[in-house]
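$ ./design --mode recover --in tokens.txt
reading tokens...
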């Protein structure tokens, strides 16, 4: 075997081996005893995310762990895995569907291949602020989308926040539509994002989050787009010179549990887990907004050249990409999109 090939194989196999470990332990805990309809059984639930522990998503998962272990007197323990140790988002979601992993909290964007309705949250410039996003996601529209998950062996317990996305690249500042021209931009595996960046003249490449830093470092792509806290906590400033404050899309996280795991839980356990996911989500949203506010100055201190995308350019982009929204709102459900638009209009009228 070629020298050096063994470490490569080992590193590729690690997420699967860890996932199998998760599967074995979980089955041991609950295998022969079946479902208890009242009490709380001793069990370990394994949760994987793609971001670092110090990112607000990681802090939210730690909060969830504390809440569950406190409310079950330690009978249920949560074992967190960070930094895509168990694989990228789609691989971890597949683990939930296969019953080899219990919990993951991905962005909704790469889930559109499973539940297409998540795609309505990917429309550019949809929300003006986090409060609007909370109202939609925690309201009837967000619930309707979560209700599609059980038919895909998944249970959605809460929405958390990834946040408003901004563009970084290593070529030049982006302050007009023309500046997108030819930029090799990594996007999430999401058809709306791909179509939008193509329409702007960029050359988009869909890629799992776990591969982005290496691709930027190797300059196989020029740029990527993410919320500021994600840019900072993943050290993208080390391989990107320019940060353009576009806030072009708001991305939710969704707290997912394997339906196989969920159905093993008693009603009491389900209530504790659900309430902990919601409470940790409120905590995570607050932490995320604080971290994103603070990240901008830290990124400037680390040498990133920062510019705003002017409002008139944003208006021009909105007009340019409207046919994409028309196309996908039909695909994802005209009535659902209409309901979301009407709820947003009501919120905005009240705030005037
Ligand atoms: O698991 C981490 C990803 O879900 C999150 O970082 C998604 O914004 C994201 C991206 O760019 O993939």
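writing sequence...
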């Amino acid at each position: 075997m070629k020298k050096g090939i063994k470490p490569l194989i080992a590193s590729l196999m690690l997420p699967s081996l860890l996932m199998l470990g998760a599967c074995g332990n979980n089955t041991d805990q609950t295998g022969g005893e079946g479902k208890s309809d009242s009490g709380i059984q001793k069990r370990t639930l394994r949760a994987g995310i793609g971001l670092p522990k110090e990112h607000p998503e990681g802090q939210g998962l730690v909060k969830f762990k504390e809440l569950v272990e406190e409310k079950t007197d330690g009978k249920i323990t949560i074992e967190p895995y960070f930094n895509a140790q168990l694989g990228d988002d789609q691989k971890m979601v597949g683990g939930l569907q296969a019953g080899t992993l219990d919990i993951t909290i991905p962005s909704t964007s790469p889930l559109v291949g499973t539940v297409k309705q998540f795609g309505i949250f990917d429309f550019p410039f949809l929300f003006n602020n986090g409060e609007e996003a909370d109202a939609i996601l925690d309201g009837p529209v967000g619930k309707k989308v979560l209700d599609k998950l059980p038919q895909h062996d998944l249970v959605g317990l809460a929405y958390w926040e990834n946040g408003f996305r901004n563009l970084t690249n290593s070529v030049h500042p982006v302050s007009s539509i023309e500046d997108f021209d030819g930029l090799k931009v990594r996007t999430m595996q999401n058809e709306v994002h791909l179509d939008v960046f193509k329409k702007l003249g960029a050359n988009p490449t869909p890629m799992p989050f776990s591969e982005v830093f290496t691709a930027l470092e190797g300059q196989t792509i020029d740029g990527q787009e993410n919320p500021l806290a994600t840019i900072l906590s993943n050290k993208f400033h080390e391989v990107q010179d320019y940060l353009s404050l576009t806030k072009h899309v708001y991305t939710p996280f969704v707290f997912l549990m394997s339906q196989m795991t969920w159905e093993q839980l008693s009603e009491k356990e389900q209530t504790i887990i659900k309430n902990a996911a919601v409470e940790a989500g409120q905590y995570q949203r607050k932490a995320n907004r604080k971290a994103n506010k603070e990240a901008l100055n830290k990124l400037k201190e680390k040498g990133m050249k920062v510019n705003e995308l002017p409002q008139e350019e944003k208006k021009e982009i909105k007009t340019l990409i409207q046919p994409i929204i028309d196309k996908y709102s039909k695909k994802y459900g005209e009535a659902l999109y209409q309901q979301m638009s009407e709820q947003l209009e009501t919120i905005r009228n009240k705030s005037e």
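exit 0
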